[in-house]
Amino acid sequence: xxxxxxxQALFASALALTCFTGAARAEALDDIxxxxxxxxxxxxxxxxxxxxxxDMQPQGLDIDMARxxxxxxxxxxELVAVSSANRIPxxxxxxxxxxxxxxxxxxxxEKVIDFSTAYAPFFMGVFGVKSAAVAKPEDLAxxxxxxxxxxxxxxxxxxxxxxxxxxxxxxxxxxxxxxxxSGQIDIFASGNAVAAVIADRDAARAPELKFVMKNSPxxxxxxxxxxxxxxxxxxxxxxxxxxxxxxxLSQTWLRAPLPPGF
Amino acid sequence: xxxxxxFADLLPYWDVLARGFVFTVxxxxxxTMAGVxxxxxxxxxxxxxxxxxxxxxxxxxxxxxxxxxxxxxxxxYFGLPAAGLKLTxxxxxxxxxxxxxxxxxxxxxRAGSEATPKGVIEAGVSLAMTRLQVLRHVVLxxxxxxxxxxxxxQIIIVMLGSSVVSQISAEDLTYxxxxxxxxxxxxxxxxxxxxxxxxLLAVLTRAILRALGSRLFPKA
Lengths: 262, 220
Fold this sequence. Notes:
The structure holds two protein chains of two kinds.
Chain A: H1 2-23, H2 28-35, E1 37-43, E2 45-46, E3 50-52, E4 58-59, H3 61-73, E5 76-82, H4 87-92, E6 98-103, H5 107-112, E7 114-120, E8 123-128, E9 144-148, H6 152-160, E10 166-170, H7 173-181, E11 187-191, H8 192-201, E12 208-215, E13 218-222, H9 227-242, H10 245-254
Parallel strand pairs in A: 1-5, 1-6, 9-10, 9-11
Antiparallel strand pairs in A: 2-3, 3-4, 6-13, 7-13, 8-11, 8-12
Chain B: H1 14-48, H2 51-65, H3 69-79, H4 89-114, H5 118-126, H6 131-161, H7 173-184, H8 187-216
Helix pairs in contact in B: 1-2, 1-4, 1-6, 1-7, 2-4, 3-4, 4-6, 5-6, 6-8, 7-8
């Protein structure tokens, strides 16, 4: 008997909740502007996009982008730390208004959330010392390239590299980085984030992008059916690109200019 | 759930496995020869050489025997380029293994040569043998006879230890297993086959070394 009542109560409250959200259905942008705060999901475990700095504050490209959006909207930015596994659920359950967390676009994700235009480059590429004359996969002929065994970029490189290129496969990213920094290899394949880490650690051997193997830039994720918010976010991204703010972010965090065509 | 073994998935990679096998065998053979040579010279110098040399060799033996092989390997491959000495991963693997086996075999062979009673050496000298002849026939030969099984075990340990050279991208048997399972995700099958290959290699090495021992250093 009691159980039945509980079930009824649950149904009733669920119904009430639906009606309530239905009635209060407003554009997220209006809610943000009236609450004067935007909640943005950011990573804190993925430098240089998002990490906890020495001052225990989050820092990184995604963090700066989040703050930029808050500034442009004229509201306070509330950062919410998420992991890559829960960043989309956080958005879907409306715990955050935006996800700025190195989010790549794919068909599955597009079914559940909307994406802004790309705000930061994220790609797998072939990097090397300045003197290495490589501009396209064919130029790797006869050369030695390092990569982390089993990583996506190693598999991509194995497909792209000519038959007489030698691929040295290391156990993890750190071994690949060490092999490059110690001069064992002059060319390597990795994500641009790894290349940025090297540039950060050892400016003398800062790797230079030779060519992009696969591009998967970062997008800002937001809930579906929020046309005003989407338009506003896209406008802010376009403005950041036009006034050089995006270039500055790339230089600061990725230690490289925005790739051509971005 | 019962895991279904699919060894057929390894077939497309047989050449990677074969190359890894050959590499491991070649690396073991070459570094064993070099390592035992280092060990023999080291043992002689430690026992009969000048004091400073014996001390230096003692330090070398202790340094190598008390540090992990992987660290020694990384030092040669990643560390030495900072000092201007850049080695390929094959050279680095060979040098690290030689240095490692050299230290252990110095100790093993020294144990054998120190077991030679002083009187026997004096007997050799009194027979008008040269120093080199004494060293060869009176000291080293009986020493090798005594320590051959221990030396063979150490060689096999070094051979099995060579599996870590895949960490510096040398393409040995373990590299083959790592590579294959990163491509087809058949970890069980890959490592199973490679473990069998190591077992086979170890059994063969032991048999060959035993035959070699009874031929080179026959028990009188």
